[in-house]
Amino acid sequence: MEYSNNTTSLSNMPNSNSTTDDYASYYSLEEDNDKQQCNSSIKNFSRVFLPTLYSIVFIVGFIGNALVLCVLVKYHKRSNVTDVCLFNLALSDLLFLISLPFWAHYTAIAEWIFGSFMCHAVTALYMLGFYGSIFFMILMTIDRYTIIVHAHNSLFSKYRSVRASIVLILFTWALNLGASLPNISFSQVKNDTNVWTCGVEYPGIAWMSFSYIEMNVLGLIIPLSVMVFCYSRIVPILMTMKSQKKHKAVRLILVLVIVFFLFWTPYNIVLFMKVLHHLGYMQSCRWEQDLSMATQWVETIAFSHCCLNPIIYAFVGQKFRNLVLKILKEWFPLCFGRCTTIVSDFSERRSSMFSRSSEISTTKIV
After folding, report:
1. DSSP state letters, 45-89
2. Cβ pair 34, 66 in contact under 8 A
3. Which residues is 318 bridged to in the sheet?
4. 198 pairs with which residues across the strands?
């Protein structure tokens, strides 16, 4: 009886192939559950962390870059290459910043509700702003290099004409579009367990590795190399000048290089580690959690660089700063009218003190 029961149960068992399939589906289901549990704590953290920081970066960066655009449009009648590059740099930062509220909302509710077209559009804004900001920083660096190092070279002076600068800007935007096109074309909306998601779906591991390495090369290696080369040639020439502002110019150059290195290097290192992760290295749950957490931090640090661009490239100059205060006084006379008066009084006092000290020193010498 006991044997017959065993025989009956054995005869009713599925064959070995179906058993293997059942076990495979069981293990794949178990892996999916482990993966969800591994990422659940990171997702809960990112729902609060990322929207908050994205909102702060958006507000601060939008105000600064919008002011740069307004000043350049309103007060600069004859634009040179530097002003045109600064305008396009601020425009690229604004394109990038416009995409952040959509990503903040997507992260907060963990679902994409804006449709397929907006998924492509927001990805396009994100990528065009990302590469545009870096490319125009490179162009501004090369422009400064040609002005200072090759000031007497007629070949380099010709490119600063209006027509040549327009061609150069259009070429930079075309290069920007070409670098951004793969991620824009691969972005798509899909239904993942009754939740709509928007993301870049690469057709294979090769395309994903190519995209990340492209960001490493175009986003860090090339711009940092250009900045180090150009500014290493500019600084010795500035130090030979007798101008009192040469030390301030050298400090500004050091700030440009150091800030770019500190803000973008961690982001590119994590991108490279994500490539290794997708290639099969660092596959443990702890590594996946650490990479996800590190990505959130370094992304926010890198994205906040667009908030510093107006300060570094525009607001440092006294003339540009005075134009910003002038336009703020026109728009908000109650808030900034008194501020501009105090700043002008302080500058007048400082100039009068400087003139008095120079007169005293001249009298002593005489």
Report:
1. HHHHHHHHHHHHHHHHHHHHHHHHHHHHHHH-SS--HHHHHHHHH
2. no
3. none
4. 189
**Is the pTM above the cut of 0.85?**
no
The secondary structure of residue 332, as a DSSP letter, is -
Q: What does the alpha-carbon distance between residue 301 and residue 56 come to, in Å, rounded to a whole number?
A: 12
> Which of 109, 116, 133, 137 shows the shortest CA–CA distance to 57?
133
The pLDDT of residue 174 is above 90 = yes
pLDDT at 217: 93
Q: Helix/strand/coil (H, E, C) string of 169-204?
A: HHHHHHHHHHHHHHHHHHEEEEEECCEEEEEECCCC
Average pLDDT, rounded, for the chain: 77
C-alpha 235/C-alpha 248 separation (Å) is 11
Q: Which of 2-6, 59-63, 246-250 has the lowest mean pLDDT?
A: 2-6
Measured CA to CA, the distance from residue 43 to residue 263 in angstroms comes to 24
Q: How far apart are CA 227 and CA 135, in angstroms?
A: 12
How many other β-carbons are positioned within 10 Å of the β-carbon of residue 198? 23
Q: Please give the Cα distance from 34 to 29 (Å, whole number).
A: 9
- C-alpha torsion angle, residues 349, 350, 353, 355 (rounded to 10): -110
